[in-house]
């Protein structure tokens, strides 16, 4: 919401879409933002990223409406919890990675220029006492398992970076489309509803996290990070920068593992398989 608010204020001639699984909640947010920003061109759409059918329905509905050309996509959703998605995938991976992967692929058909941002996290590279992260095959994390939530979360955030780097690489080879794709770490925001701690270690971490975040200068808030994210989407300062990882305002290095191109391609191919995306739905030739 904070990102949408800032885009609506700074860029009043743009249409803004709030896509959410809870239509009542997003209609209320739209009403509030229209009033606060005096921008009437803000709309609520239903989108459940934990259902591949819902992603397809959202894109179909979006295409039916008479909006100006699509310029920006922010992939921000994350979901914890042990349940499976509508398609039987692990909820964290299914929502945070697969849903966004399909969404961006489908929407790219509507885009000629613009910016796409995958919201990741510094936890894509977790300290070993929080999670031990290796990448062997995305199938290891695709289905519900008894792995702890921190590891699933970190893996999904790593996938967001691989995906941003892969989209950027593929779009660089299509100069007729001037689209940049990056990954963003919003910093530690203690005022959001990020997945509840699921064990004693996570409960302890949640208590000390604000202090640790301040000490490590990664503390932020939803309002602050939402504003920075909006800047990435509309500020001329970021024009043309693609395939990068931003720690809030600054271009930064992501983890060593995140630059493994073989893993990124493996994830891309697995994601095509798992989402069953069809050639006619995509602009990329390797989707057959
Ligand atoms: N909080 C932090 O300290 C922190 C740090 C680094 C990175 N991040 C990243 O920042 C992003 C936002 O996280 P947050 O802290 O704002 O977490 P949050 O409060 O839990 O928000 C998650 C958002 O995802 C949406 N969502 C969940 N499942 C969905 C689904 N199936 N379909 C559509 N939307 C769905 C939620 O919608 P509802 O409103 O319907 O629940 C909510 O808007 C995430 O990508 C997270 O990894 C957060």
What are the main properties of this structure?
288 residues, alpha/beta, Rossmann fold, five-stranded mixed sheet, two-stranded parallel sheet, 9 helices, 44% helix
What does this structure look like?
This protein has 288 residues and is α/β, with parallel strands linked by helices. The protein has one domain (70-281): Rossmann fold (3-Layer(aba) Sandwich), CATH 3.40.50.720. It has 9 helices and 9 strands. Strands 3-4-5-8-9 form a 5-stranded mixed sheet, sandwiched between helices. A two-stranded parallel sheet has the order 1-2. Strands 6-7 form a two-stranded parallel sheet. A hairpin with a 2-residue loop joins strand 8 (245-247) and strand 9. Helix 3 runs parallel beside helix 4, helix 4 (91-108) packs parallel to helix 6 and helix 6 (149-172) packs across helix 9. The longest helix has 24 residues, at 149-172. The protein is globular. Residues 20-22, 25, 47-50, 76-79, 95, 119, 121, 157, 185-186, 188-189, 192-194 line the site of NADP nicotinamide-adenine-dinucleotide phosphate (NAP).
The CATH homologous superfamily: NAD(P)-binding Rossmann-like Domain
Q: Total number of β-strand segments?
A: 9
- State the helical fraction: 40-55%
Number of domains: 1
Secondary structural class? alpha/beta
Please tally the helical runs, counting DSSP H or I stretches of 4 or more residues.
Answer: 9
Strand percent estimate? 5-15%
Provide a brief overview of the structure.
With 288 residues, the chain is of the alpha/beta class. It has helices spanning 2-10, 23-37, 52-64, 91-108, 139-142, 149-172, 200-215, 222-234, 261-275; strands spanning 16-20, 42-46, 72-75, 113-119, 178-185, 188-189, 219-220, 245-247, 250-252.
